[in-house]
Amino acid sequence: SLERTRYATCKHYLCYKFNIRVSACFITTRMGLFEKDFSQIPCFRQTFMYSISTGLGAGIVYFLLTSKIRQATHFGVGSYAIVTLGYWAYCRYNFSKEKQRTGQLRKALQHQVAYEGTELESKVKGQ
Amino acid sequence: MASWSSLGFQDAASPLMEQLIFFYDYAMLVIILIVTLVGYMMASLFFNKLTNRFLMEGQTIEMIWTILPALILIFIALPSLRLLYLLDEVGSPEITIKVIGHQWYWSYEYSDFLQVSFDSYMLPPNELPDNGFRLLDVDNRTVLPVNAQVRVLISAADVIHSWTVPALGVKADAVPGRLNQVSFAVNRPGLFFGQCSEICGANHSFMPIVIESTSTDAFLNWISSSSD
């Protein structure tokens, strides 16, 4: 993993006082630009896999058909950009929808425990 | 928490901040792609030998470079508006606390239960333990239970201050004579730090905010001991 812990042991005085581990005790940071692990961004990997391969493929095919280097480069870069934007929007939209559904399901399961055996449960089941 | 040379966001500690980070990642990729594409076009212009002294109009290209950016903006605007309205939702808060900004400390009131109120001053360096956080630690932390929806009503007693905790994705001005409301839920235990974000005088940089989120039991113990 790209995470790095700056302090190996707890340095905050609260840890000694209460013998608890608070997140401030371990200052973790990540390697990479803006301490961000880009592979953890949803849809990042698929988007760039598809867009880089599409750009390369489209550029090579265009060159093979026309033998024009500059235009083939333009075509490749343009396809890369369009596929990145298009697939990113599509993938993030689906991710957002799925996340919302998962949240609703989790909430429903939590409430189900509270409503079990009550009138509300039988009403919901009846529907 | 933030340490020196931190440029990016802190790890999210509330669902709202998670959503903000998701939207940021989404929009930033679009922005970086546009910048790359325009940079590529500008670089290729350096090597372009095409000239047309009689160029008057180009309807097709003008349509493309109008419609394409409009489409991109729509794709950015839709999730942005969704997030904007999500941030304004106040979903049945379980706890309400009042925060009042003073020169130069914060005071907190928990009026839901027994009347608990306290002031929160920054720990000066001479009182800071060797392993404390300089300019961030306070004498009385704001304790909140984990996974509880919290409503914070923010105001000020003298000049304008601003109450913010970056890890929770909240920031609101504390304006005298006005009540601002923010709502959030902390979804993990820990300490979350913030600093006053509106210039308010000599010690503006020395009035931090510390939220300590703990289990409900620990919170109730703290509340009952504080009211005593």
UniProtKB/TrEMBL annotation, chain A:
Keywords linked to the UniProt accession: Membrane, Mitochondrion, Mitochondrion inner membrane, Transmembrane, Transmembrane helix
Main location: mitochondrion
Cellular-component GO terms for this entry: mitochondrial inner membrane
Location relative to the cell: Mitochondrion inner membrane
Cell membrane keyword on record: no
Superkingdom classification of source: Eukaryota
Example GO biological process: mitochondrial respiratory chain complex IV assembly
Coiled coil: none
Segments crossing the lipid bilayer: 47-65, 72-90
Family: Belongs to the COX20 family.
Protein's name in the database: Cytochrome c oxidase assembly protein COX20, mitochondrial
Species: Halocaridina rubra (Hawaiian red shrimp)
Lineage: Eukaryota, Metazoa, Ecdysozoa, Arthropoda, Crustacea
From TrEMBL, chain B:
Pfam families with a match to the protein in the record: COX2 (PF00116), COX2_TM (PF02790)
Cell location: Mitochondrion inner membrane
Membrane topology note: Multi-pass membrane protein
Protein name per its UniProtKB record: Cytochrome c oxidase subunit 2
Domain Cytochrome oxidase subunit II copper A binding residues, every copy: 92-225
InterPro entries xref list: CcO_II (IPR045187), CcO_II-like_C (IPR002429), CcO_II_C (IPR034210), Copper_CuA (IPR001505), Cupredoxin (IPR008972), Cyt_c_oxidase_su2 (IPR014222), Cyt_c_oxidase_su2_TM_dom (IPR011759), Cyt_c_oxidase_su2_TM_sf (IPR036257)
Primary gene name: COII
Transmembrane segments: 20-43, 64-87
